[in-house]
Design goal:
Blueprint (H helix, E strand, L loop, with lengths): L3 H4 L3 H22 L1 H9 L21 H6 L15 E4 L9 E4 L1 H18 L6 E4 L7 H13 L2 E3 L6 H11 L3 E4 L1 H13 L11 E4 L6 H11 L2 E8 L4 E7 L7 E3 L4 E6 L13 E7 L10 E7 L1 E2 L11 E2 L4 E2 L4 E3 L2 E3 L1 H8 L5 E12 L2 E10 L1 H6 L9 H18 L3 E6 L14 E3 L10
Parallel strand pairs: 3-4, 3-5, 5-6, 6-7, 18-21, 19-20
Antiparallel strand pairs: 1-2, 7-8, 8-9, 9-14, 10-11, 11-12, 12-15, 13-14, 16-17, 18-19
Keywords: Ligase, Nucleotide-binding
Subunit structure: Monomer.
GO molecular function: nucleotide binding; phenylacetate-CoA ligase activity
Length: 445
Amino acid sequence: MFQRELETLAREELKRLQGVRLAETVERVYRRVPFYRRRLEESGIQPNRIRSVEDVKRLPFTRKGDLWENYPFGLFAVNREEVVRIHGSSGTKGKPTVVGYTKRDIDHWADLCARAIATAGGRPGDLFHNAYGYGLFTGGLGMHYGGERLGMTTVPVSGGNRSRQVALIRDFHPRGIAGTPSFILSLGETFAAAGENPRDTRLEYGIFGAEPWSEGMRETLEDTWGIDAVDIYGLSEVIGPGVAIECREAKDGLHIAEDHFLAEVIDPDTGENLPDGEFGELVFTSLTKEAFPVLRYRTGDIAALNRECCRCGRTHARMSRIKGRLDDMLIIRGVNVFPSELESVMLGVEEAAPHYRLVVTRQGHLDRLTVEVEAAEALVRRLGGTFDPGDPRCGEVCNRLRVLLKEALGVNAEVILRAPESLPRSEGKAVRVLDRRKSDASPLF
């Protein structure tokens, strides 16, 4: 562990620390952020009445729309001159979100990412291949500073340029790698295309996030690379990567850094808190942020909480793998579907490769889902080395997938088997859904 004393705090001591930091955060935003002062006064809340973690339920929610309305610096709790770095979202679904960091925020973030890498199996002296994108996106620089804080040799390769990445992995012999699961999977294909086996590298662990991925994808990544694959979670509005991560020992939920973040799960319709184990919308309150603290930020991510101690010895609460996002959920003829759920089904069929796209169209007043999935190389070999979508064996695979999707998710979908390497490959976050109900056929995510 990177910070054993903090990561193994007794629950009561952890709650006491959270209560103190929550009170300090509420006082801070009340004094320094007009938006929060107004919200707290409208809710009839005096900062000096916030004394324990239970009091968080009395606080107002913060939504992404609030960030847009206060663009660019309206939610900063320090003077702009005290902000040493700015990150933010791309703004593909609206205005960009802008978040700021003081020097102390950057130090805390580096500690959190170092803690995360160590939880995944990293250690000082490792060579660490960082394939997350650098820039306003928090993934690249977050993991970079974490690697350096842990004492690793960090390679800032960023995303894209697969052939160069393959050469660096082959020549530098990294022990750890980080990136989006879809991109790292495509790197494995690039290795294979060059006549090399990615399992022959010296990689031992991978840290994957920035897009929802399934247990089936984990098995595929681990089998492709011969590594332990762990899930990491973060979002720029809260701090970036390092909010939570799976431990390599158990891979059974993501350990939340509860000394820095207070987590809740709520009913997205009523806003009421849900008990541990029930899925709902994940909500975070920052406890140590200076420049950009947030109160009860509604992430839009669907997850559940588990506060039982993990067998790795860490005592902080764990969150489940993200089931999906509220704004990414597809409603197909009254059935709620998340792309990661379809992924889990498809990756259970050996004739299907882990590369897919969901196309949503509308016929009359009804939505229609088409699943395009690439044929696995094993199937192509059984076909004699040439992919023929008209071969009855391809039709059998499509029919089997249709039945499995119906049984598992209750959704009717057309399934189309595509040739290997025919679907677009991601240079970062994968684009999984194409919504053709809109005239511009723009990708949803």
